């Protein structure tokens, strides 16, 4: 938890207005979280824009860089560009509450806000569900298409049930 403190944005001594913070993220950052990653070798720059107001804080967190993914088709490694942005409103209240999507409430006594979880989520949301290398050949795609399951349109002839026919006639008259 101590290493996550490196991602605290202290706002108590800042004047009202806009302030910028920059972070460099690598694999050590993601090792702080107890989850398995779908990528390796992250090289990510994080730009944080804090707009401090008297009663709330606005955070704009932009991530850009690259991560190494494994292609779902060829199993080859490739670099995938990461670029994403999230905006979060931080307001003050009795206790910590992140139940709303874009609004986080922190205790009034806090003097800093930790953005590590927001950075982590921002990067995780940038990883595509299908990981296909840009270097995949047309031959690989053709083989994949050849052995992929095809959609079969099955035309079923349904026998008409006389009990429902009477109801259908009522529907058609209206």
Protein architecture, described:
The chain is α+β, with helices and mostly antiparallel strands and 174 residues long. It is 21% helix and 37% strand. The protein contains four helices and seven strands. It has helices at residues 27-31, 116-124, 138-147, 162-173, and strands at 8-10, 17-25, 40-52, 56-70, 77-93, 103-107, 112-114. It has a five-stranded mixed beta sheet.
Question: Which tags fit this structure?
Answer:
single chain, 174 residues, alpha+beta, five-stranded mixed β-sheet, flat
Question: Over the alpha carbons, how many angstroms does the gyration radius reach?
Answer: 26 Å
User: Strand tally, please?
Assistant: 7
Order of strands in the sheet with the most strands? 2-3-4-5-6
Helix content: 10-25%
**How many helices?**
4
The helix-and-strand class reads: alpha+beta
Which stretches are poorly predicted, pLDDT < 50 over at least 5 residues? none
């Amino acid at each position: 938890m101590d290493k996550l403190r490196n991602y605290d944005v202290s706002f108590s001594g800042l004047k009202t207005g806009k302030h910028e913070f920059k972070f460099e993220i690598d694999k050590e950052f993601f090792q702080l979280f107890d989850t398995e990653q779908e990528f390796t070798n992250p090289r990510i720059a994080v730009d944080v824009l804090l707009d401090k107001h008297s009663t709330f804080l606005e955070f704009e967190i932009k991530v850009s860089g690259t991560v190494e993914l494994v292609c779902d088709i060829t199993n080859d490694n490739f670099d995938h560009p990461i670029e994403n942005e999230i905006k979060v409103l931080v307001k003050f209240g009795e206790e910590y509450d992140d139940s709303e999507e874009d609004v986080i409430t922190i205790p009034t006594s806090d003097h800093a806000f930790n953005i590590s979880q927001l950075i982590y989520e921002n990067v995780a949301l940038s990883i595509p569900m299908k990981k296909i290398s840009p270097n995949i050949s047309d031959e690989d795609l053709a083989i994949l298409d050849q052995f992929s399951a095809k959609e079969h349109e099955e035309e079923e002839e349904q026998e008409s049930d006389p009990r429902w026919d009477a109801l259908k006639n009522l529907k058609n008259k209206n």
